[in-house]
Amino acid sequence: MSNSEQRECTGVEIKVPWGHISGKWWGPQTTRPILALHGWQDNAGSFDTLIPLLPPHIGILAIDLPGHGFSSRIPDGQMYYNLDYVTTVCMIMKEYNWDKVSILGHSMGSIVGFLLAGIFPDKVELLIGLDAYKPLSVMEDYYSVKMNHIITLFLIADDRNRNESEPPSYPYDECIEKLYIGAGSSIDRDKCAHILERNIKRSTKYPDKYYFTRDSRIKYTNIGIWPKDLYSSVLEKITCPTLFIRALDSPVIPNAPPFDEHLSVLKKNPRFEYEEVDGRHHVHLNEPHKVSGIISKFLLKHTTPSAKL
What we know:
Keywords: Hydrolase. InterPro entries: AB_hydrolase_1, AB_hydrolase_fold, AB_hydrolase_sf. By secondary structure, the protein is of the alpha/beta class. It has 2 domains: about 210 residues, Rossmann fold, CATH 3.40.50; about 80 residues, no CATH class. About 30% of the residues lie in helices and about 20% in strands. An 8-stranded mixed beta sheet has the order 1-2-4-3-5-6-9-10, sandwiched between helices. Helix 2 links the parallel strand 5 and strand 6. The longest helix has 21 residues. About 40% of the residues are buried. The mean pLDDT is about 90.
């Protein structure tokens, strides 16, 4: 067994004003790690199969974003928003006294990375994005209808949280099936356990069943409006070494003009690299070998000795 396959991690908790951010710190803890950000409704377990295949001398801190995994939920009455996750990363940087950060993001986590690198280009040392780059948005003429729906369901979920009653529980195999279906069959059933480990808890009423622990409010996110030109202006500010990997069997990025136009903006950065791999949206979890070599090569090319912690 190789050294990378033997790689171990340590659980961490990072203080934030509303509680804590939980994470899994893989590898060395004497230097600043790569910060790994998962996708919507996933958690740090999303990187369990990929990280052991990456260079073992590079530390990686995979976190649970607020409301996900073992991290604290935001206060009652508050809505989740992509830019709030950018703020969370800044708070983590402040807690560890980092002047810069390197990001490995999947899906929503990748979007957060691109937003961070465009808003704070001097603070992002390198960026690796997996299969998403742009915040979810809707056409302006549909915005009021969509937000009507989201806010209505958010208020119901928020009331349920305050009620503090135990959510519905299911046998473990049914939890796997619910995750598999809920993720659009993107996560292989035999890989669902990596997400469920930080996403379910044994029922106090039915000891042979489990309930989902993520904050249900994250399903009703404030999506905002991100016009093409506005987001292009964010992307063109990115100057750090950037790697974007697109999963060809994923529905997340449609073959449409906006993607090509944004890709053209990103390619203006001379340190931007673009790769495509066969696989679904969670290819990094299902078949990590398809992306690990690409990512490792990029990391070894651009990673420099980091400041001591």
